[in-house]
Each structure stands twice: as C-alpha cells, then as structure tokens.
Amino acid sequence: MLLHEFRPARLIAGAAALAAAALFLGDAVGAWHTPWFAALVIVFDGLFLAGAAAFVHYRIRRRRSAKAASTENTEAPASTSGSQAIR
C-alpha cells in the first residue's frame, strides 16, 4: 500500500534547492568561490525542469484515468432504480 503518490516535480525542485544550498555552503566554508548569480541559475533551471516534469506527469495521469474510465463504461450502471435513478 502506497502512503502517497509519487511526485517527480517536487523531487527535482527539492534537489535543485539542495544543490544551491550545498554550493553556497562550500563557498561559506572556503572550499571554493561561488558567484552570486549561481544560485539563481540553479534554482530557476530546477524550477523549469520541475514544471516540465509536472506537465509530463499530469499528462500521463490524465491518459491513464481516461483509459480506466473508458473500460468502466462497458458494464451496467451502479443504480438503475430507486432513489438514485436519474429522472
């Protein structure tokens, strides 16, 4: 049983933020020099990739749900009489 749905866009956005943080941590420790704009490039590129991944993931989920809905329409409806029936 899955506890939650896998969201690849959140993984990519989080990895980009962690990469920017690690880059500036190395600069703060003195291991290397990081230009000030490097974090902007990493974070914005990560957000762009996360947006692309979210779009692809959305399209895949939508296609799967459409296929599942088309196969469910072959049987009889759940309720054909009683108070649930459409009048």
Molecular structure report:
There is one protein chain. By secondary structure, the protein is mainly alpha-helical. The chain has a domain at 8-66. 66% of the residues lie in helices and 0% in strands. It has two helices and no strands. It has helices spanning 8-29, 38-72. The protein is elongated and about 70 Å long.
Biggest β-sheet description: none
Q: SS-based structural class? A: mainly alpha
The percent range for helix content is 55-70%
Number of helices: 2
How many extended strands?
0
Q: Give, in order, the helices and strands.
A: HH
Tell me what portion of residues adopts beta-strand conformation.
under 5%
| Unreliably modeled segments | none
Distance between the termini: 40 Å
Instruction: Provide mean pLDDT, rounded.
Output: 85
Coarse morphology: elongated
Radius of gyration equals 23 Å
List keywords for this structure.
single chain, about 90 residues, mainly alpha, 2 helices, elongated, transmembrane helix, Integral membrane protein, transmembrane, membrane
Lay out the secondary structure:
Blueprint lengths: L7 H22 L8 H35 L15
Helix pairs in contact: 1-2
Summarize the structure.
Keywords: Membrane, Transmembrane, Transmembrane helix. By secondary structure, the protein is mainly alpha-helical. The chain is 66% helix and 0% strand.
